[in-house]
Amino acid sequence: MKKAIIMGAGPAGLSAGYELQKKGVDSVLLEAEKEVGGISKTVKYKDYHFDLGGHRFFTKFDEVNQLWKEVLGDHFKKTPRLSRIYYKNKFFNYPLTPVNALSGVGIFETASILLSYFNAKIKPDKEETFEQWVSNRFGKKLYSIFFKTYTEKVWGIPCSSIQAEWAAQRIKGLSLSSAIKNALFKTKNSSIKTLIDQFDYPTHGPGMMYNEMKNKIEKMGGNVLLDRKVSRIYHQEGRIQSIEYQDTSGNRYTQEGTHFISSVPITELVKMLYPVPPEEVIQAANHLSYRSIITVDIIVNRKNLFPDNWIYIHSPEVKLGRIQNFKNWSKDMLPDTNKTSLGLEYFCNENDDLWNKPDEDLFRFAASEVEKINICEASDIEDYTVVRVPKAYPVYMMGYKEYLGTVQEYLKKFDNLQLIGRYGLFKYNNMDHSIMTGLYAAKNILMDCLAFDTWEVNTDEEYHEEQKERPQRFRRRKVPVLGTSSTQQEVGYEK
User: How does DSSP classify residue 223?
Assistant: First the structure.
């Protein structure tokens, strides 16, 4: 009889467990934290709900849409999207629009931007780094204004040390020329309809989705064990045999299974294996790193501060990277609509100076920064809470693919182990991509095969936020069907 052991109860792990349990495969989910949801959980503080970064429920995958509706039903609300860039005391549209961006920087900067852009078109750089990728599409001047500062805040390393693949995943399809063409010469036959201007959002944040998914798994007979940290993974002859985990009191337990799914950080997974992997695999894992995040969540005694869902802070004079305005995600996120709750996001490394600051010092620092950039007065902030999120983002440093390839090649030899999610695959997935990897893993177990490659999710060339017109033509689609987007669903022919 099949039994799935799932390490991690974030969106990917929960989706795998839910799908398996629904189809009659017993599942045990082990989560090291006190709550499910991973980086997509919702933190509750004095009846205020704080998202750890702002998680839109928007996807092109029909399977993911169906799952969301099946689990949460009518608890979604349509939320209009507004996000902007804050730079030199001005707000700029995001994604960038040519008229807004160029008019906001002034005539001389505009001339410099256009000259830089045309120079990039005449003499493009090779595209190995983030800096080169973006500069080829926007010019080095626009890159330096609207991409460099924020990106280096996020990753803590120069853009010249970030692999171009990250840009290709996160800002596909956008360039200065395509933005201008779309704005000025858009026709009925244009394949790009629009960038998404609204999305679904649970009334009390994304944690609603994942708490409900946990409840449904347990009602169907599955187990979701919280505060349980996996410490050892035993294997023999190319198969995982069992895992060892411990509770908060240090008590150790062993769990056997037939199939194993992991969304724990791949760097930690390698070091849990016993017998231990070859030294070159351990060393390769040591060269992979994650970036962490701190949110300083504040309650402001002001009814309205700004209309955006979130703002990117490109001003180099502050460390603050992004601000979420939770009232503009859902008014149900706060108990008093005469006040405003903000999530102030700081990117850092575990155990660096920022990470180790006491909460009170972090709050004072954050309060001084929002005052410095004229978001609100520090005296208007009446309360706060601090949340630290380790290993939030895999870092696409130059050369990381070689190290990841070494680890990946070794782990693929275990025929009953599948990796899923952002942490497990070391891939900067959106939430829906992570869910799709969980569904892939479940499907493989149900079909007794490995037909669906979790590593292949989020490798397409289609920009995540573009909505495209459906072309009226015949087209053949490849099987298998699972994982197709809403624009590529049918098998055979379509018209």
Answer: E
Cα distances (Å, whole numbers) of residue 226 to 27, 230, 265, 478: 14, 11, 17, 40
- Cα dist. 469→78, 79, 190, 193, 285 in Å? 21, 22, 8, 6, 42
pTM as predicted: 0.89
Helix axes 11-22, 431-447, angle to 10 degrees: 30
- Write down the residue that tokens 């649970």 correspond to: 202
Burial code (b: 16+ CB inside 10 Å, e: under 16) for 214-239 equals bebbeebebebebebebeebbbeeee
**CA-angle at 364, arms to 360 and 367, nearest 5°:** 135
CA–CA distance, 4 with 489 (Å, rounded to integer): 29
Tens of pLDDT along 288-331?
999 999 999 999 999 999 999 999 999 999 999 999 999 999 99
DSSP state, residue 204: T
Single-letter code of the amino acid located at 304: N
Structure tokens at 235: 């294997």
Mind listing the domains of the chain with CATH numbers?
A: 3-37+208-288+397-456 (3.50.50.60), 93-188 (no CATH), 290-394 (3.90.660.20)
Task: Please report how many Cα atoms fall inside a 13 Å half-sphere around the Cα of residue 489, on the Cβ side.
Answer: 9
